[in-house]
Write a structure and sequence with these properties.
The chain contains 13 helices and no strands. The protein is mainly alpha-helical and 387 residues long.
Amino acid sequence: MTRLTAYVCGLVAIDLALFSAIVPLLPQISDRLDLSKVESGVLLGAFSLAVVVASVPVGHLADRAGMRAVTVAGSLLTAVATAMFALGGSFPVLVLSRAGQGIGSAVAWSAGLAWLAARTPLERRGAAISLANASATGGMIAGPLLGGAVASAVGVRAAFLGAAGVSLALSAWGLTEPDARAHEERETSLRPAVRAAAREPWIAISLGLIVLVALVGGTLQVLMPLHLGDAGVSQSSLGLLYAIGAVLGAVTITVTGRVSDRRGRLPIARIACPLLGGAVAVLLLPLGTALFATMLVLLAPMQSVLYGVGYPLSADGADRAGLGHGLVLGLVNLIWGVGAVVGPVAGAAVADALGDRAAYAMLVALSFAMGAAVARVSSGSAPAATL
């Protein structure tokens, strides 16, 4: 693992930790500030909304101004926003701090991953980006511990000031790494670049893969725990199931990235999409609780395969189209954010109206449709060399 890979892994790990740390704190914050459910939702959603709004602009800025400067600035913003969260005593300040953390997240996943893609040789790009994706799992596991056990032991202020210190240290680390930006030969003007991205099949496929896994994951995260909860599975058991699935997913992402460097991204995606659809189709059967719980665990690594090929494929597509990595990865993060918002809402709405099986059938159809789209894209030519 290179120093830059380790650095970007640290960025995304602290990002996901901060994203999820608020969950165990929400009841306490809601009681202390007398928040309504809508206000609590705004506090949760401010982070994700900022990611959706900022991903493309910060990726575009990284291509033009330099990926190191933008990434380091994002780490500094995360440190300031996290300190605000630690010290803030009002609803507007907490919302503003969450939005600041969300912009920092957009920087990590757009400029940070673009920096890693630009500095990593093509034959190792999938492995490097997949390691960064896998490290996000550690952040998702650490986040509830930060907001739960750690905050209970040392206090919310100390816990989040400590997290702010980690972000500050990461910003200092980033200054020691070699910079990267889009070469002059690449299109960096926003509108022409977006049009060029829309015409490049590999970028379109990468966006489709990421929005598919966001829709599938978001829907399953709503319906499957509710089903198991109704069947009598405890909260702690659900947490264990998700933790096991997360670990398997992290391993799968890492392996997928390495294999895709050797075998190609599209052949893996062509197989993974219908396999995911087939696995979701199992949920249409009258499963017992134990089998249903087993599927919850098994579906996690199957979704991770799409992350493992989707992100590096977008960088490969940027090479083919002569575009900056920052802009393209910004588009990927934008589409992920949209899918992550739409998936739980749309899936739950279909389930409410027609039943859970109808929602699962919708995911099956989307998975097979995406597999067909991948199959239509030629995978015979090698990725273009990085310019």
